[in-house]
Task: inverse folding
């Protein structure tokens, strides 16, 4: 394998990781922001209050987008397995 190929595969893997993690991270960020504004408005300073809504938001996001995520990672893995004979010479 050539070094350029390894770097390209690593770059594609990182892009796939970012693409798959972005929806869950965005959902938990937005829920955390809403909970923080709520805590500031009501002056509730409980640190553990934000954990449950964030976990629920992450679970709902994975439930809703899990099929899409699985499809993307399966396509990526299939592409790698199909191209292995071309890369090894």
Result:
């Amino acid at each position: 394998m050539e070094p350029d190929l390894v770097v390209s595969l690593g770059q594609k893997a990182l892009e796939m990781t970012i693409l798959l993690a972005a929806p869950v991270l965005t959902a938990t960020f937005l829920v955390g922001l809403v909970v923080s504004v709520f805590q500031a408005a009501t002056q509730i300073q409980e640190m553990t209050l934000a954990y449950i809504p964030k976990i629920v938001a992450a679970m709902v996001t994975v439930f809703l987008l899990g099929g899409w995520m699985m499809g993307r990672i399966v396509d990526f893995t299939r592409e790698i397995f199909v191209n292995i004979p071309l890369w090894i010479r």
Observations:
- Residues 18-87 form one domain.
